[in-house]
Amino acid sequence: MKTWNIYLSGEIHTNWREEIAAGAKAAGLPVSFASAVTHHEASDDCGVAILGEEPNKFWHDHKGAQVNAIRTRTLLADADIVVVRFGEKYKQWNAAFDAGAASALGKPMIIMHQAEHAHALKEVDAAALAVTETSQQVVEILKYVINGELTGYTDQA
């Protein structure tokens, strides 16, 4: 049986990743999850921590972005499905960038955000194969796509 690689991109301030992982585990789905480094300070400082200090904040951030891109590009390329979550408090430019990269790679995307962001994210949503508001909806999509199971229906082939 195939193990599906699911890349989880987006905001790092809520537990949506854990909710999806727990739902997938409870459903017995054959999935493997990956994401960017979600420890904010480690992600910001990885470049200078490994490659040396930068007095200019631009180059400090640039080094970190490049080191992080090694992970992101590799995991996005290996993903069977990309889930991108846009949170309510922060503008996630990185999430939008990941959505664009996933789209360019032809990766199936599930976008997750609140209804009030529908207008701002209309172009991102248009590139997705599904747009959801909750982690549970993502899990239900994964159940259907992977196992052909639709909750509440019987006699499924």
What does this structure look like?
Helix content is 48%, strand content 15%. It is of the alpha/beta class. It has a domain at 4-38 and 81-147: Rossmann fold, CATH 3.40.50. Strand 1, helix 1 (16-26) and strand 2 form a beta-alpha-beta unit. It is globular and about 65 Å long.
Total strands: the figure is 5
Under CATH, the topology of one domain can be stated as: Rossmann fold
Low-confidence stretches: none
Largest beta-sheet details: 5 strands, parallel
**SS field, number of helical segments:** 6
CATH top level class name of one domain: Alpha Beta
Please give the alpha-carbon distance between the first and last residues: 17 Å
Q: Helices and strands: which structural class? A: alpha/beta
Oligomeric description of these chains: single chain
Shape: globular
What is the string of SSEs from the N terminus onward? Answer: EHEHHEHEHEH
What is the structure about, briefly put?
By secondary structure, the chain is of the alpha/beta class.
Outline the fold blueprint:
Layout: E1 4-10, H1 16-26, E2 31-35, H2 40-51, H3 57-78, E3 81-85, H4 93-104, E4 109-112, H5 122-127, E5 130-132, H6 135-147
Parallel strand pairs: 1-2, 1-3, 3-4, 4-5
Helix pairs in contact: 1-6, 2-3
Structure keywords:
single chain, 157 residues, alpha/beta, Rossmann fold, 5-stranded parallel beta sheet, 15% strand, globular
